[in-house]
From TrEMBL:
Database matches in InterPro entries: PPIase_dom_sf (IPR046357), PPIase_FKBP_dom (IPR001179), Trig_fac (IPR005215), Trigger_fac_C (IPR008880), Trigger_fac_C_sf (IPR037041), Trigger_fac_ribosome-bd_bac (IPR008881), Trigger_fac_ribosome-bd_sf (IPR036611), Trigger_fact/SurA_dom_sf (IPR027304)
Compartment(s) of residence: Cytoplasm
GO cellular component, one term: cytoplasm
Pfam families in the cross-refs: FKBP_C (PF00254), Trigger_C (PF05698), Trigger_N (PF05697)
Name of the protein this chain belongs to: Trigger factor
Natural source organism: Ancylobacter mangrovi
Upper taxonomic lineage: Bacteria, Pseudomonadati, Pseudomonadota, Alphaproteobacteria, Hyphomicrobiales
Keywords: Cell cycle, Cell division, Chaperone, Cytoplasm, Isomerase, Rotamase
Catalytic activity, reaction form: [protein]-peptidylproline (omega=180) = [protein]-peptidylproline (omega=0)
GO biological process, alphabetically ordered: 'de novo' cotranslational protein folding; cell division; protein transport; protein unfolding
Similarity comment text for this entry: Belongs to the FKBP-type PPIase family. Tig subfamily.
Record's function text: Involved in protein export. Acts as a chaperone by maintaining the newly synthesized protein in an open conformation. Functions as a peptidyl-prolyl cis-trans isomerase.
Length: 459
């Protein structure tokens, strides 16, 4: 085998490999000799088929198998001799000329091909014990618990039919059809939708215009979607709804006591409050971890600056960009609507893609160097948890992950990432800093960018 380096640029390598015809022929003959004792052909006793006859019949197909194996072995030898860690599978370019291919398959010419490699960079890990992080923490207050319990009570308040016009606090079940500039829009229609007047759960101004409506009455409700409305294609737009009231119901009394708690499956009101407190604490802790993790990733990115494999970065970018542009097309928005240009947005998302690849490589290197692994039991628990999210379809979900290695890897990856983050937080100097609820749940620019990137990745 002859190997000639053609390219060594950054993380890209390219080699020309020549496999002599004599070596390939010898391996093919060896394979044919093995076949001789196994092949059954009419006119020949078992084990007595001449190799020359086998070569006439199966020579090309056997040589093709030999070539495939020889190419893989040659590529593996190049990788091993240079100590490469590959970012992607080798890109092999075999001869395309039919005449040249036939000469190789007939054993008349050497096989010459090129192989392109994209290798992982050598990563020198930083001193994680030198990392200093502030972790925002927020204790659960009695006021928070009482507010949540009151919301639960409000959501379980009984209603009974009433005669006459709807008043503030009444529940009106409605059907509606919305239009913008006379045209219906997606998500603008509904049937049998309960609206509690004064709950502020609908578009500002919608509930107030239902005051005085009676059963079977139809009226027009005019509203304007908020500027920060979640559906960007509706944000800030004026809409008109034709609303028909089907039923009017008056609210009943809810008494916060042990009996009420028992209707929710709790032993007592105190037990309900304890569960609510625990749930709020979990939300605070999750938000706190998300923020300290974001700071940790920022520090890791700063500590480890290196070139990333171009193709990995390109693949990451294409995934994000495709999702972003698809979503914008669905919402009929342009980059100008977002206060930017397509060129500037591409540059931003290319930076995000490179950061994601870089951090992924760093986390993988940390995990490998410190023997951080995800057990099969942990993956199984993740599959079970995912199956529980689809009541009635648990078996189908289980079978999907059992048969789909890529889907299973998508569950393993975040578990691995969280374990590496836990490992790093143990080494880092983490200082707990008490904050207000507003501070803990404030969304800074980095959070917004990360949220947008995550949404793109989900899509």
């Amino acid at each position: 085998m002859q190997v000639t380096e053609l390219l060594a640029e950054g993380l890209k390598r390219e080699y020309r490999v020549v496999l002599p015809a004599a070596e390939l022929d010898a391996k093919a003959n060896e394979r044919l000799n093995e076949m001789k004792d196994k092949v059954r052909l009419n006119g020949f006793r078992p084990g007595k088929v001449p190799v020359a006859h086998l070569k006439r019949m199966y020579g090309k197909s056997v040589l093709a198998e030999v070539i495939d194996q020889a190419v893989n072995e040659a590529n593996g030898q190049i990788v091993e001799e240079h100590g490469f860690k590959l970012a992607l599978q080798p890109k092999i370019e075999l001869p395309q000329d039919e005449g040249a291919v036939n000469e190789v398959l007939e054993g008349k010419a050497d096989l010459s091909y090129t192989v392109g490699l994209e290798v992982l960079p050598s990563i020198e890990l930083g001193d994680f014990k030198s990392i200093e992080l502030d972790k925002p923490v927020l204790a659960v207050t009695d006021a928070e618990v009482d507010e949540m319990v009151n919301r639960i009570a409000e959501g379980n308040r009984p209603y009974s039919a009433k005669e006459g016009a709807a008043e503030n606090g009444d529940r009106v079940t409605v059907a509606f059809v919305g239009t913008i500039d006379g045209e219906k829009f997606e998500g603008g229609s509904g049937e049998d939708i309960p609206v509690v007047i004064g709950s502020n759960t609908f578009i500002p101004g919608f509930e107030e215009q239902l005051v005085g409506i009676k059963a079977d009455e139809t009226r027009t409700v005019n509203v304007t979607f908020p500027e920060n409305y979640q559906a960007a294609n509706l944000a800030g737009k004026a809409a008109s709804f034709e609303v028909t009231a089907k039923t009017i119901e008056a609210p009943g009394e809810v008494k916060l006591d042990d009996e009420f708690a028992k209707t929710l499956g709790m032993d007592s009101l105190d037990a309900l409050k304890e569960q609510v407190k625990s749930r709020i604490a979990q939300e605070h802790n999750a938000q706190s971890r998300a923020k300290v993790k974001r700071k940790l990733l920022d520090v890791l990115d700063t500590m480890h600056q290196f070139d990333v494999p171009p193709t990995l970065a390109e693949q990451e970018f294409e995934g994000i960009w495709g999702s972003v542009t698809s979503e914008m097309e669905q919402q009929k928005r342009t980059f100008e609507d977002e206060g930017t240009t397509q060129e500037a947005a591409r540059a931003d998302y290319e930076t995000i893609a490179k950061r994601r690849v870089r951090l992924g490589l760093v986390l993988a290197e940390i995990g490998e160097k410190n023997d951080i692994q995800v057990s099969d039991d942990e993956v199984t628990r993740a599959v079970v948890e995912r199956a529980r999210q689809f009541p009635g379809q648990e078996q189908q979900v289980w079978e999907f992950y059992r048969k789909n290695a890529q889907a299973l890897a998508s569950l393993r990856a975040p578990i691995f990432e969280e374990k590496v983050v836990d490992f790093l937080l143990e080494l880092a100097k983490v200082k707990e800093v008490p904050v207000t609820r507003e501070e803990l749940y404030a969304e800074d620019e980095a959070d917004k960018a990360e949220a947008g990137k995550d949404e793109a990745e989900k899509a």
